[in-house]
Amino acid sequence: MMRRVMLLLALLMATTVAAQAIDPLPFKDHDQEVRFQHLTAQLRCLVCQNENLNDSNAELARDLRHEVFDLMQQGKSDEEIKAWLVARYSKFVLYDPPLDTGTALLWFGPLLVLVLGGVALVVQVRRRSRAAATEPANAVIESNDSGENW
Amino acid sequence: MIPELGQLALILAMLLALVQGVVPVVGAWRGNSALMSLARPVAAGQFVFVALAMGILVHAFLTFDFSVGYVAANSNLALPWYYRITAVWGAHEGSMLLWVFILNAWTLALAIFSRQLPDAFAARVLGVMGFIGLGFLAFIVFTSNPFLRELPMQPDGADLNPVLQDPGMTFHPPVLYMGYVGFSVAFAFSIAALLGGELEQAWVRWARPWTNVAWAFLSAGIVAGSWWAYAELGWGGWWFWDPVENASFMPWLVGAALVHAQAITEKRGSLRSWTILLSLFAFSLSLLGTFLVRSGVLTSVHAFASDPRRGLYILGFLVVVIGGSLLLYAVRAPKVAGGRAFAIVSRETAVLIGNLLLTTAAAMVLLGTLFPLLGDALNLGKVSVGPPYFGFLFNLLMLPVVLLLPFGPYLRWGKGEVGVLKPVALRAGVAAIVCAVIAFLFVDAKLKAIAGVAGAVWACVGTLLYVIKRWREMPRGRRFPAEMAGMLLAHFGVGIFVAGVMLSESLSIERDVRMEPGKIVQLGSYEFRFDGVRETSGPNWRGDEGVVTVMQDGATVATMHPQKRTYTRGQVQTESAIDAGIFRDIYVALGEPMDAGNREGAWALRLYQKPFIRWIWLGGLFMMLGGFVAAGERRFRTQKARNEAGATVAEPAA
Amino acid sequence: MSRLLPFFAFLALVALFGFGIWWNTQHDQREVPSPLIGRAAPEFRLPVLDDPSRMVAKADLLGKPYLLNVFGSWCFACGEEHPVLMAEGKALGVKLVGYNYKDEPAAAKGWLAEHGNPYDLVIADVEGRTAIDFGVYGAPETSLVDGKGVIRYKRVGPLTPDVIEREVKPALAAIAKEAP
Asked: Are C17 and B377 within 8 A, CB to CB?
């Protein structure tokens, strides 16, 4: 545990002074720069694992940004660049979890919750509205502060 | 000697918490008013001791008492006094003490302002608060003591992380904890109701102001954290869906659902079980957040030092408190649907749909945050879940909420009229479309910006239409009851927030540039001229300060001073320069000299123009304001006389 | 009864958290498993540290398995790992190739002179570009490449006697069984 802390500290000390995320690169035009920013924002820095490549000060992040830049200059698409990085660093380098059997729960879980909750809601509302139909139309309603019901 | 007194104070507070957690609850169970009446004085005593401990810790920091390990680890001789106070809650042990201190502050407020509650109920509420305090105090005393001495005493300490040396850090944790911890009150009310078998919903009226205030504080705390991250961290980012951020956002989402559900239950008597369950969820998520950032279970830029022993302790505490409360719910929550019925088209239905979306969003955030852990457990490999997941699904779930928002006030309780909604939809819709077209002319085909404008105008105009309606129809003095005013403010804030997010995300411009002194670079509608770098220093740092002049049409708009600081212990911190504006921020960060060592030559700089970014926090502040204003509703405070049938009769309004 | 659903959902969550705490004691949370295991090592061509005019390519190292140990004079944990390599490196009976990563050659040579050189061969990747092909994201890292040039095992973090015993030696034995 201590060793890992030391490694992290060593990496941090070596990187925060030496390298910077601010990294002017010779883009052809602003559109290419924007594309680069969007792409690197979707990629995780493996060293500072909670920062993306566009923002990380780590040396490795700088190296990988230069790789991404070179690949862009070679005409590779965003998908090809991501695949290139994934082949070397695994899917962990992508912030966007891919959709496969492993992540099915992740992507469809919220939908499941919404559907189940929606069913419960519909049941509840129908039950209440049926009761409402049998209540007299002008039933007393709890009065509010100024005696009005808004 | 004094730090030992602090330790003693904590132990005494813990013993009092034990008394507070057990005795009044037993008293309520037995109908023993002597035992019940112990609750308030014991709560006051506990507050005194915890405040004493807090004061002693602050004192230790202010007097540079490096014999205390925590002080030595988080401050040094050069740290200014205001950051030495901040350092009190800068790391695990101190922030736990802050947590307990704020819990005691809420408990004391409850003790003072609960005179209108029946004795048994009040005793139970205070008892639950005491029990929670007991858990945290025991945690501090046994595993996280901030007063431990570290001898031999260091002549000088380490440093508070430079990232935390910012006014944002001074405000963000206390305000956030006021919210986080404040949900314990709604929790305590619900537990008290379940324990006492309260079938009437009157207790929800008592719970509402406390819940609204807690939610308002949490909103402010999250806004403060986001603003601070923008100024200090991540190059102009304001939200990263980092696990710790998510830990504060989940209670906020559930809390937003809760304040709405409480309105239904209080006014109509229905959905009592759901309201109770939501209040249990809200505080459970607060506790969960506390667990997540201290157990090491998740990596985060934010996480405190991880320790399996501490993790297990908190987990055990969670099992007792959350598990116990959910079990109590299963056994004691009202089984029979009570309260008023409502039609399919009614405010209740609208609120319930909103509740569904908010709680689904909270569940989604929980799933995404925990999924890497689940991936490890199910051997799915190392899964990465980031903003593309959270942001996408969150936007999807919130879209229907924004669409429904203007209709809320127009729908009546019990039975609403679709006919009333049509003119609202028409007016707000036309306004939204017109503004979207105007936006299109400015931003071309940036779909996100146009959608943001449309959504914001829809929500804001829809809310304003109701303001106008009330203004016209009601006599002065009765137009906007506090509850309604709060609702309108908060809903208006949602629109502002949507505008801020969508516009800043789609219209921000960023460039990394190489600039020699004198060079001018165009970014958006501004020109930036780099005027070189000079040396500068502060109380505990030395650094380089760049001078960047920002011009528009030849006139100087701002002179900015981005800095790179090296602190006393060697940490390097980038202090970006921000020129704040209502309609845009200009953001400049200083990098490194382009040719290593040549400080007179070209430097790397990062320039940003961020339109409407302040609207994000402005929207959040409107929501906060709404929460505070709504809590001021007179109806929540007046004494109620109750007749046999359970209906209430209000005293004449003062 | 549906009222118990939240309670059971919570219990499932507790189980997950308990697992998480346990898992952390067994694993380095920051470790990213390599996608290159079982795949061919990337083509490379790097100069020898002591003699930069001499280049070593992947083809030159085919035929026999070797351990590729990524290190740098700037790396604190490599200093911790070094004595282990000095003590146990030779005994493993496999070629030990040092991969000097993002280092000043002079500094690296001095470091090896001072602490000892356990390697049979040291190649230098000053820029660190080839290391990206190997999926290197920190030092120290050690990869086991077999005679056919396939990466069979990777260790992120320092080698310890325990790791060598539990993981490296079995991996070497597995390769030895397949020969020739």
From this structure: no
Query: Considering only CB atoms, which chain A residues are within 8 Å of C80?
Result: 3, 6
Chain A residues whose beta carbon lies within 8 Å of the beta carbon of residue B633: 145
pLDDT value of residue A16: 40
- DSSP for chain A, please give it: -HHHHHHHHHHHHHHHHH--S------SSHHHHHHHHHHHHTBB-SSSTTSBTTT---HHHHHHHHHHHHHHHTT--HHHHHHHHHHHH-GGGBSS---SGGGHHHHHHHHHHHHHHHHHHHHHHHHHHHHHHHS-TT------TTS---
Q: Tell me: cis bond preceding A110? Omega within 30 of 0 counts.
A: no
Distance of CA B564 to the CA centre of its chain: 30
Verify whether the Cβ–Cβ distance A3 to C157 is below 8 Å.
Answer: yes
Q: What phi and psi, each to the nearest 5 degrees, are found at residue C127? A: -80, -30
Residues sharing a CB contact under 8 Å with residue C172, sequence separation 6 or more, in sequence order = C65, C92, C93, C94, C144
Interface of C with B (CB under 8 A): 1, 3-4, 6-7, 10-11, 13-14, 16-21, 23-25, 27, 29-33
Instruction: Give me the pLDDT at residue A139, please.
Output: 55
Q: What ipTM score was computed for the predicted complex, to two decimals?
A: 0.89
**What proportion of chain B, given as a percentage, has pLDDT over 90?**
71
CA distance A84 to chain B (A): 17
- The token pair that represents B261 in the structure block: 């559900």
Q: Among A4, A63, A64, select the one facing C157 at the smallest CB separation.
A: A4
The average pLDDT across B209-216 equals 97
Give dist(CA C113, CA C96) in Å, integer: 17
Element housing B564 (H / E): strand B563-567
Alpha-carbon dihedral sign for residues B43, B47, B50, B53:
negative
Please, are residues B578 and B166 in contact by the beta-carbon 8 Å criterion? no
Q: Which residue of C has its CA nearest to A45?
A: C137
Which one of B232-236, B244-248, B497-501, C154-158 scores highest in mean pLDDT? B497-501
Report which residue type is found at A38: H
Q: How many CB atoms lie within 10 A of CB C25?
A: 10
pLDDT at residue number B589: 93
* Distance, CA of A20 to CA of B564 (rounded, Å): 11
Helix (H) or strand (E) holding B578: strand B577-579
Chains with 3+ CB–CB pairs under 8 A to C are A, B
Nearest to B484 by CA among B471, B496, B495, B497: B471
Distance of alpha carbon B475 from alpha carbon B276, whole angstroms: 37
**Residue A2: burial class (beta carbons within 10 Å; 0-12, 13-18, 19+):** exposed
Chain C residues near residue B297 by CB distance under 8 angstroms: 17, 20-21, 24
* Mean pLDDT to the nearest integer, C54-78: 92
Cβ pair A146:B481 closer than 8 A: yes
Distance CA B533, CA B547 (A): 6
Mean pLDDT score of chain A: 82
Residue matched to tokens 């958006």: B524
Who among C28, C34, C132 is closest to A4 (CB)?
Answer: C28
pLDDT-derived band of residue B234, with 50, 70 and 90 as boundaries? low
Token digits of residue A130: 């049926």
Q: Are A121 and B353 an interchain contact pair (Cβ–Cβ within 8 Å)?
A: yes
Beta C121-125 vs C95-101: how paired, if at all?
parallel
Instruction: Give B620's contacts (C-beta < 8 A, 6+ positions apart).
Output: B219, B220, B222, B223, B226, B493, B497
Taking an 8 Å cut-off on Cβ atoms, the answer to whether A90 and C35 are in contact is yes
Contact B502, B452 (CB under 8 A): yes
Predicted TM-score of the model (pTM):
0.92
Within 8 A of A91 by CB-CB distance, chain B residues are 381-384
- Identify the residue with better confidence: C27 or B100: B100
Work out the average pLDDT over B596-607: 89
